[in-house]
Specification:
Blueprint: H1 5-8, E1 23-26, E2 29-32, E3 35-38, H2 45-77, H3 94-113, H4 115-123, E4 128-133, E5 149-156, H5 159-172, E6 179-183, E7 200-204, H6 213-223, E8 230-236, H7 242-259, H8 267-273, E9 277-284, E10 289-295, E11 308-311
Parallel strand pairs: 4-5, 4-7, 5-6, 7-8, 9-11
Antiparallel strand pairs: 1-2, 2-3, 8-10, 9-10
Helix pairs in contact: 3-5, 6-8
């Protein structure tokens, strides 16, 4: 029986609610003509929230897959389909030609992949004397909390790239006077702050354009404070999945020739060969994006093999 019939009768017109035709409503039920009818209970908010959780997680997973698929499609479309290109291992000179358009070129893909959030989570941890290498055009500049930074040193061998980074920093933090900019290779000597060295060393998307990345990381470890120094990396490289690694390998030469980046490097092996202690590793985007925290080896020069690795799928 419809509830509307209790008030309007079978014809749907108002009737005078008198005598036996009078309906009494109580919470959870109503009574008409001496017969009590139970009203079905509506699902509670707790049940709704419990059902909404899996839907949210599932939707987020689909969004991540679509975003990474879009990024991969764009990247592969922009690369030649042939792998028979004779490209030197050192392709860092490409950045001098792409510096002015670099930000506009990578903005869309970084937004789709949520790399801005990863950059923020990494850079916001910088404290004390800070060294950022492979700074590029300064895509991390806006994420610094300068109240936690005693000094900041930026290093990049591309004069065109690092000049853009210098301009960004000056425009955003005009009153900060403890920032120095070095146009040089990270492999070259970098002055360490006294007495212990750099408290935080950052590098984002730098391993891909370095010819000897393990030696580079070892060098960063020597520049770090041996007591509490931290090396924070955001890199991209090989995936969890063989099918994706085959795609990366096939298009790596063309991608390196155009963008100055070898996107198929074995990040795990590079880190292990550096001799640094692995504190934590997180992986995103089918395992191709690496969020890494390292620190200098112990006093005997031996890395601690224990580490925490988290894979965020896909």
């Amino acid at each position: 029986m419809r509830v509307s019939q209790c008030l309007f009768g079978n014809q749907g017109f108002p009737q005078k609610a008198t005598g036996n035709n009078r309906s009494r409503f109580e919470p959870g039920r109503y009574e008409r003509s001496g017969v009590t009818h139970q009203i079905p209970k509506v699902s509670s908010n707790k049940t709704y929230r419990a059902r909404r959780g899996p839907l949210f997680v599932g939707g987020l997973a689909v969004y991540c897959v679509v975003c990474y698929g879009t990024y991969l499609y764009i990247s592969l479309s922009n690369s030649s389909k042939t792998s028979k290109i004779d490209i030197p291992e050192d392709v860092s000179d490409r950045y001098s030609h792409t510096a002015r358009n670099f930000d506009s070129t990578v903005d869309t893909t970084e937004k789709l992949m949520g790399l801005g959030w990863l950059r923020r989570s990494l850079t916001s941890q910088a404290t004390g004397h800070v060294l950022e290498v492979s700074v590029g055009t300064g895509r991390n500049v806006k994420y610094y909390d300068l109240t936690k930074c005693s000094t900041i040193t930026f290093v990049d061998q591309s004069a065109e790239m690092i000049e853009i980074a210098r301009e960004k920093f000056k425009d955003r933090y005009p009153s900060y006077q403890k920032c120095r900019v070095l146009t040089q290779s990270t492999h070259d000597p970098i002055p360490r702050p006294a007495p212990g060295g750099f408290d935080t060393v950052l590098q984002t998307m730098g391993i891909c354009s370095t010819t000897d990345p393990s030696a580079l990381l070892t060098h960063l470890g020597r520049l770090s404070n041996p007591t509490n120094g931290r090396i924070l990396l955001l890199e991209h490289g090989r995936s969890h999945y063989d099918w994706l690694n085959r795609l990366l390998d096939a298009h790596a030469p063309a991608h390196a020739d155009k963008h100055g980046c070898w996107w198929n490097k074995d990040i795990e092996k590079i880190v292990q060969d550096s001799g640094l202690e692995i504190v934590q590793i997180k992986r995103y985007h089918f395992g191709t994006t690496w969020w890494i925290e390292l620190k200098p080896p112990d006093e005997q020069g031996k890395p601690n093999p224990s580490s925490s690795t988290t894979s965020v799928l896909p």
